[in-house]
Amino acid sequence: MTLRQALRHLSDEGLIVQQAGKGTYVSPPHLAYRLGSLRSLADDLRDQGHEVHTRVLDSSLRRPPSAVAVQLGAPALRLERVREFAGRAAVHQVSWVRKPFGNRLRPVDFTVKSLYAALADAGVAVARATETIRPDVLDETVAGHLRAAVGTPVFVSDRTTFSLDDTMVVVDRAVILGDMMEIRAARAATGLSLTWSGSQP
């Protein structure tokens, strides 16, 4: 087998990535995020043994955009974060938390604690969430935070989280770089299980 054939075989197996004019790179392992659970992406990745870093860009009480204010009221806690793994910014996330829960979370260090864990510590029992995921392209504002080009393919996740008494607690939007995540489905006779998986570039 020639070197060219070996490289083609490794590329076909998804073990390396070849970029014209740039070189050949080892493909990173895939990461899985279970959509069927109420856990955060960061918690799921850490459980898989991956190191995830969170940068907090904003944590303040503000008036939400009108579409969010209709759902949560105003003011609300605005929590803006960037998730990084493998040394690369991968996810930009803006979460709005309604009063009085948002007030209780203001002292929390979200670089080390997930939002759901902080809510639990504040006595808020999360019961369910609805989530929609759609493809999009990176806009100028978020592109700067993710250090990626405007127009880069992304997934946009919009999630609304409810407490045990069905009170809407959190409205959340996450923008995820498309080359680092993919959606997987595991089908069975009794149902459908969906997961996120991600790969480092």
TrEMBL record:
Domain of life: Bacteria
InterPro entries: Bact_HTH_transcr_reg (IPR050679), Chorismate_lyase_/UTRA_dom_sf (IPR028978), UTRA (IPR011663), WH-like_DNA-bd_sf (IPR036388)
MF terms (GO), sorted A to Z: DNA binding
Stretches assigned to the UbiC transcription regulator-associated domain: 47-182
Name of the molecule in the record: UbiC transcription regulator-associated domain-containing protein
Species annotation: Dactylosporangium siamense
Gene3D superfamilies to which the protein is assigned, alphabetical: Chorismate lyase-like, Winged helix-like DNA-binding domain superfamily/Winged helix DNA-binding domain
Pfam family membership, one: UTRA
Family annotation (SUPFAM superfamilies): Chorismate lyase-like
Annotated transmembrane regions: none
Gene Ontology BP annotations: negative regulation of DNA-templated transcription
